Amino acid sequence: MKNKRYIVLLILVLGILLLPIIAMQFTDEVNWDIFDFTLMGMLLFGTVSLCELILRKVKKPGYRILFCAIILILFFLIWAELAVGLFGATFTGS
Fold first, then answer.
1. Where are the chain's structural domains?
2. 3-class SS at 58?
3. In terms of Cα–Cα distance, which of 82, 77, 19 is closest to 47?
4. Over the stretch 15-25, which tens digit does the pLDDT of each residue have?
5. Are 13 and 48 in contact (CB under 8 A)?
6. Digit-coded pLDDT (tens) for 76-92
7. Closest to 66 in 3D by CA, of 75, 55, 76
8. Quick one: how far is CA 81 from the chain centroid?
């Protein structure tokens, strides 16, 4: 059962990565290269893997929710920084 959930999450990650590919077929507003797909794939895969690890190892539901929420908040902050340079960090090139 646990591996089945992880496989479903990985398929969801691939589905999310298909969205920019589909959008690039219809508009010039989305222009990703292989680096963008690689970086987003690593972010999504890492987030899903860390949350899955927490769900498997942490027994108390309150701690599960807290740790997964922290990981998701960090994911969204990194995503926002990479997308629009929200905080002006140096690793985004802005």
1. 2-92
2. coil
3. 77
4. 999 999 999 99
5. yes
6. 988 888 877 666 666 65
7. 55
8. 13
